[in-house]
Design goal:
Strand content: under 5%
Structural class: mainly alpha
Number of domains: 2
Largest sheet: none
Pfam families: Homeodomain, TRAM_LAG1_CLN8
Shape: globular
Order of helices and strands: HHHHHHHHHHHHH
Organism: Seriola lalandi dorsalis
Region (Disordered): 355-379
Catalytic activity: sphinganine + octadecanoyl-CoA = N-(octadecanoyl)-sphinganine + CoA + H(+)
Number of helices: 13
Helix content: 55-70%
Pathway: Sphingolipid metabolism; Lipid metabolism; sphingolipid metabolism
Number of strands: 0
Length: 414
């Protein structure tokens, strides 16, 4: 086996090179791989094997996030006053727990009737148990704050470093420079790391998608992550690095504002959250609905044809950009809904874009203890006593107020 392995690997590599790395996929017509070979002194040319480093980097991001959330995000959340809601834990009922995990989190009426017969409970108790069980799985404000703070930290650093590396480049100001000399364009070390870190981060987000907070736009977020990874990977291999850095910069410019608004939302800083959201909405709408389609997509779809004839890479790259633009339009619709609420209702009720959990309905709030049939007598007695105490206090306050009014009228009576 040891003697067969090298020839087998060589054959697999030859097949991969013959099928995947065909020049018609990656290079404009009339250009061969030999034409774009560069010497070391000319600079670094992007190679597909460079992207292998993104896999261990994604794992490193996950480990760094674990440390960041526990050592920085959690203490910071306490400083800002983030509070977690206390929820009623569902009673331990093995049959209902098995159905909850294996079948459905929201049983139908027929299933509720069947489960009630199996467990000897009323339909009301079955429905209440499932409501408490779903609420029990809802992520706490601290968990959501930690996730938002981690993304805020990365997006802020990525945008700052990316803008700093691009501010002196000619293609940031003149988009035709993205294609001048293509495809024989060396890649600066700063832009190489910009690419590798961005792709590693989005890979880590995709790996953690099953444990992160599931939001209203969960499917759109997964599509966005996958499209971004393909976009970054393909643009690096095809040496679309110059326009690729612009795509990443446009996206990072507003994302850190959204995450900061979420952080203050979870902390209950309503005015700060609303102000940050308005700034985010303005930047998002300008960068994603004006700059991205009007400048970035235009230069890849139209301006690039001034420098080379269309080929497979041209169509594939622009198709990924159009997928991202469709997601931008979807998110812009949600954001405009929030802006409408902010203007006409005076506040931002919730993050329409991605802050609402998709698996729990808004109506699933914990009911008062005295309304549930499953409440113990001690719980109901405590609720009744608290109401009686409140009623008594109101009576005492009313009596004192009336007595104070009578005393104030006595001198006039005399």
């Amino acid at each position: 086996m040891e003697h067969c392995s090298p020839p087998l690997l060589l054959r697999m590599e030859a097949l991969l090179n013959e099928w995947l790395w065909q020049e018609k996929y990656w290079l404009p017509p009339g250009i061969r791989w030999q034409d774009i070979e560069m010497k070391e002194e000319d600079g670094h040319f992007p190679l597909p094997r460079d992207l292998i480093y993104t896999l261990p980097l994604a794992v490193a991001f996950i480990a760094l996030r674990y440390v960041f959330e526990r050592l920085i995000a959690v203490p910071f959340s306490k400083q800002l006053g983030v509070k977690d809601r206390i929820r009623i834990r569902a009673a331990s009922i093995p049959k209902l727990e098995a159905f909850y995990k294996q079948n459905s989190r929201q049983p139908s009426h027929a299933e509720v009737v069947s489960l009630g017969k199996q467990c000897g409970l009323s339909q009301r108790k079955i429905q209440t148990w499932f409501r408490h069980r779903r609420n029990q799985d809802r992520p706490s404000n601290t968990k959501k704050f930690c996730e938002a703070s981690w993304r805020f930290a990365f997006y802020l650093v990525a945008f700052t470093a990316g803008f700093g590396s691009l501010i002196n480049t000619p293609w940031l100001w003149d988009y035709r420079e993205c294609w001048r000399g293509y495809p024989k364009q060396p890649v600066a070390e700063a832009h190489y790391w910009y690419y590798i870190l961005e792709m590693g981060f989005y890979l880590s987000l995709l790996m953690c998608v099953s444990v992160d907070v599931k939001r209203k736009d969960f499917k759109e977020q997964v599509i966005h992550h996958i499209a971004t990874i393909f976009l970054v990977g393909f643009s690096y291999c095809a040496n679309y690095v110059r326009v690729g850095t612009l795509v990443m910069l446009v996206h990072d410019s507003s994302d850190f504002l959204l995450e900061s608004a979420k952080m203050f939302h979870y902390a209950g800083w309503t005015r700060t959250c609303d102000s940050l959201f308005v700034v985010f909405a303005l930047i998002f709408l300008v960068t994603r609905l004006v700059v991205f389609p009007g400048r970035v997509i235009h230069t890849t779809l139209v301006v690039s044809l001034e420098f080379f004839q269309p080929f497979f890479g041209y169509y594939f790259f622009n198709a990924l950009l159009l997928i991202l633009q469709a997601l931008h339009v979807f998110w812009a619709y949600l954001i405009l809904r929030m802006v409408y609420k902010f203007v006409f209702l005076g506040k931002v009720e919730r993050d329409e874009r991605s802050d609402e959990e998709s698996e729990v309905d808004d109506e699933e709030e914990e009911e008062p203890e005295e309304e549930g049939d499953e409440c113990s007598w001690e719980q109901r007695k405590g609720a009744i006593n608290s109401k009686l105490a409140s009623l008594a206090n109101n009576c005492v306050l009313n009596n004192l107020t009336n007595q104070r009014n009578i005393n104030s009228r006595l001198p006039k009576a005399r």
